[in-house]
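Reviewers of the previous submission asked for a worked example of the structure-prediction workflow described in the proposal, so we include one complete record here. The input consisted solely of the amino acid sequence. No template or homolog information was supplied to the procedure at any stage.
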Amino acid sequence: MYQGRPDGGLIEVEGRPPPRGRPSTTQPRNGRTTMNRGLIGTIIGILVIIILVIVILQLT
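From that input alone, the workflow returned the following structure tokens.
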């Protein structure tokens, strides 16, 4: 778990492992997977927004 500090930095709390079980390095070993994950996230986000707009238009 990471907890925000007042100055905006991140501190590691109680020595827990970082999210997704990755070693606590700033740069992942292969940047392609993180890029793909970001792309998938944006595509899902856009789809959700489109679906919401359609639903709202149907309701009105």
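The mean pLDDT is 70. We consider this example representative of the routine output the project will generate in years two and three.
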